[in-house]
Write a structure and sequence with these properties.
Residues 325-536 form the Glycoamylase-like domain. The chain is an alpha+beta fold. The chain folds into two domains: 36-139, Immunoglobulin-like; 152-546, Glycoside hydrolase 144 (GH144) (Glycosyltransferase, Alpha/alpha barrel), CATH 1.50.10. The chain is built from 15 helices and 24 strands. The strands form nine sheets. The protein has a five-stranded antiparallel beta sheet with strand order 2-1-4-7-6, with no helix packed on it. Strands 3-9-8-5 form a four-stranded mixed beta sheet, with no helix packed on it. Helix 2 (152-168) runs antiparallel to helix 13 (512-526), helix 4 (211-227) packs parallel to helix 6 and helix 7 crosses helix 15 (538-546).
């Protein structure tokens, strides 16, 4: 009996133990997925690209689960815009549920950075990382002055002289003409050369070169244009080889005459003709040869079978296939002025009224940002429309049946300025000191920026060539570009072509048609030099009167 009881007790204990063992068997661990709950940059939520970030930012990523420490190795990619890795300290905090990332040293000012987490990251329980982290930020602007302080006058001269080097030091060694851009080699531009000739005259007046040096450069250019450059009914191509004069196509069918570029070239030549007004044999010969170049252009032939509008292009291979009539309002007013004033192949006032002014259809009259715009497209378009023709044509007090051109150009610049101040697209960096939309290089391309085509790209030429119209606003821009951004913008040939604070992008290019207006329009603001010279040409005065213009200087 005792034995039975003992046996029963032992058996009970055995089954109880077995039952208890089965009950206490641990559940298998299910890996929990890892995801991001919050992302902070310097203590603030980081959901979109951030600007004006400190140079040694602290990034914290809050996860849904503790992170497996061994998985953070190589999981963090902090890079600059070129994709180069930025060294950073990476540690886990708050029981391994927060990842802290901080660069080991100060980042460069005003540079783009990108943070990515790779999917090798794991939770402490072995779960996969299921979120995506791919964020961007731009560090703050260095507000310190990059160059010693100058008086306003000295600063204007400094900018003119540095920019002048593009046309003097970088002019083509054979033809003396202006290269299209700093990477163009033998490719030179007719319109950019016309603008560059005017810059040359400023260089003489400012003492950057001597009068004799300027004369010799002009002689080289004029000799090349008369004896080597290919012409089409007297007009020049947009681009040509600076050594041979052979046309370089601007596009497939644009391989012949470009009447607008020709007019920009002749505007510069006539301005130089009026400048070299002494009785020295070299000056007399220069003036004569410039007049011959002007008189050889068959402006009336570009009416295309005696029509009532000038056409921009003609090709020996494709004829009129480009089919682009020159109608206002745009940068081409000087084309009609020179055509009307031609002593040999003039066009009529009717052509100006019907073809260019479209019998008044080029008028606007609406207000933008509270500013009335007499002519042109909404918001005025790119600022070069108020620069190119007016490097030579003086708009101050100039009026005709369609507009007051002083008001037109000033209000165009003011609208462009207000667009940056009010910044409807919320681009980082736009302000009363960072403004100006015009044609320029952009990342991987080129565009005519305007309030209606705003990609966040600022071109220094836009505000600086507007000095005659907006002197205070242009000076504010100049000082910011030179003193604050000068280490990134002001280079061997003056200001680079364009930049974007929003994208932390800075062009490496210089373009003739953007550099020259800076020099020339600053000089027109200071002394009226090129305005006085071009407007004094007898053919120009006669043309403006013929077309119905009035001005104090006519």
């Amino acid at each position: 009996m005792r034995f039975f009881v003992l046996y029963t007790v032992c058996l009970g204990i055995f089954f109880t133990a077995c039952s208890k063992s089965e009950e206490e068997k641990p559940e298998p661990v299910v890996p929990k997925q890892l995801k991001v709950n919050r992302l902070l940059l310097d203590g603030e939520e980081w959901n979109t690209i951030r600007y004006n970030v400190s140079r040694n930012p602290v990034i914290r990523i809050f996860f849904s689960e503790p992170v497996l420490p061994s998985s953070i190795t190589n999981a963090v990619n902090l890079t600059n815009k070129a994709g180069q890795a930025i060294a950073a300290n990476v540690v886990l905090e708050q029981k391994d549920s927060v990842l802290k990332i901080q660069p080991t040293g100060n980042l460069d000012f005003l540079t783009f950075h990108r943070l990515q987490l790779v999917t090798t990251l794991k939770s402490a329980s072995g779960g996969n990382f299921i979120s995506t982290v791919d964020q961007q930020f731009v560090t703050r602007i260095d507000s310190s002055s990059k160059f010693p302080a100058l008086t306003d006058d000295a600063l204007l001269t400094k900018v003119q002289e540095q920019t002048f080097r593009y046309f003097w030091d970088f002019g083509h060694p054979v033809s003396g003409m202006a290269r299209e851009r700093n990477s163009s080699g033998d490719l030179v531009t007719s319109g950019g050369t016309g603008f560059g000739i005017m810059a040359l005259l400023v260089g003489i007046e400012r003492g950057f070169i001597t009068r004799q040096q300027g004369l010799e450069r002009l002689q080289t250019i004029v000799e090349f244009l008369k004896t080597k450059a290919t012409r089409y009914h007297g007009a020049f191509a947009h681009w040509m080889n600076g050594a041979t004069g052979v046309t370089i196509p601007f596009s497939q069918k644009d391989n012949g005459a470009d009447l607008v570029e020709t007019s920009f070239l002749i505007m510069g030549l006539l301005t130089a003709r009026e400048y070299f007004d002494d009785n020295a044999p070299a000056a007399i010969e220069l003036r004569s040869r410039i007049t011959e170049i002007y008189e050889a252009v068959e402006w009336d032939w570009f009416l295309r079978n005696n029509g009532d509008v000038l056409f921009w292009h003609w090709s020996p291979d494709f004829g009129w296939d480009m089919n682009l009539p020159i109608r206002g309002w745009n940068e081409c007013l000087v084309t009609y002025v020179l055509a009307a004033g031609s002593p040999t192949h003039p066009v009529s006032k009717e052509v100006y009224d019907k073809g260019w002014a479209r019998e008044g259809a080029m008028k606007n009259g609406a207000s933008y940002y509270g500013i009335n715009l007499p002519l042109g497209e909404p918001y005025g378009g790119p600022l070069f429309l108020s620069h190119y023709s007016f490097l030579g044509i003086n708009p101050i007090g100039l009026k005709d049946a369609y507009a007051d051109y002083e008001v037109q150009n000033r209000n165009h610049a003011r609208i462009n300025y207000q667009h940056s101040v009010q910044n409807p697209n919320r681009f980082f960096g736009y302000s009363g000191s960072v403004w100006g939309l015009t044609a320029s290089d952009i990342p991987n391309g080129y565009t005519a920026s305007s309030p209606q085509n705003d990609r966040g790209i600022i071109a220094p030429t836009a505000a600086l060539a507007s000095f005659p119209y907006t002197p205070d606003e242009s000076m504010a821009a100049l000082k910011f570009y030179y003193y604050v951004l000068g280490d990134k913008l002001f280079k061997e040939y003056g200001f680079i072509d364009a930049f974007s604070l929003h994208n932390a992008w800075f062009a490496v290019s210089f373009l003739a048609i953007d550099q020259a207006p800076i020099i020339v329009m600053i000089e027109n603001h200071r002394t009226g030099l090129c305005w006085d010279l071009f407007s004094a040409a007898p053919e120009v005065k006669a043309a403006l009167r013929k077309l119905g213009f009035t001005a104090p200087y006519l």
